[in-house]
Amino acid sequence: MSRRALPVPFLVLGMGILLCALNGCGTVDKAIHRPNLVCLAPDLSRIFINDSQRGRVLIADRRFRYLSEIAMPVGSSIWGIAVSPAGELAVTNGRQTSVAFSEAEQEEGNIAEICFYTLDGRETHRLAWRGEKRLLHTPGPIRFLSDGTFVVADYELNTIVRLDRSGKVLVKFGEFGHGEGQLYYPNDLAVASDGSLLVCETYNFRLSRFTPDGTFLGHLGGKGREEGRFMFPQGLCFDAAGNLYVTELSTMRVSVFGPDGSFRQAIQPLQQGFKADCLQMFGVAWASDTGDLLVADSINECLHVIASDGRWVRAVTALE
User: TM segments (predicted)?
Assistant: First the structure.
């Protein structure tokens, strides 16, 4: 007796049953899976966490209570989230839109995009570039300047691009290298109180400072495990006093520098009661209401909460 193919409705129903069995039907997964980025709304009403394993951006209130989430397309690779002065969330994303059988097909199917959302997660605007000659190849960290324009780092091209909301390129600078003004894997950005731009160069083991128009101003750090130097720096943020916080992958610490660039202290959760074999700290954000730091630890699937004096407080593994 020949076998007949199941009608499409039955296949869809079967797939739905399978997904329900795996993920639960009608339930919300509030656990944090492989977070790599975190940021806060200027009014502190929202915390945004990139849940990289589940392909979503979690939206929580200041008490880590689940509010909603933004589901990203399959194949997304998100390495940049930021909130504008006007209160709009921006997410950078690089994704493959089709199955590729050659390098040319792969390039044609690659899309680099910057998506804009309300603080509740409703998409309002999108910039996208496609193909081999697209403006951005691997869009990474994004930061807004005071005039509403923004800068995006491309860690494959080793460039920084400044754009307005329409996608017009205002400034583009950077190239691969180890010298002054050159970049190697720009993995995060931070805007100082004077408007200058700090670029975290993971594989140059340093931070480079530029004006918003791309003029090089100087370096901070350099390769080393001693205090004041870096081993694979990852994330950056400033507090209101101008202190700078830098997460490091190899040393598993957060290094703190004063407004003048002098080293202040090293924060190491593994030496303060957090139980784990290792840490994988990427994104970091400063909360102005309490002075706490929020640090995304991907391998331990949590956010570390660190008090203003450097004390590790707790690890948040799931939203309420």
Answer: none
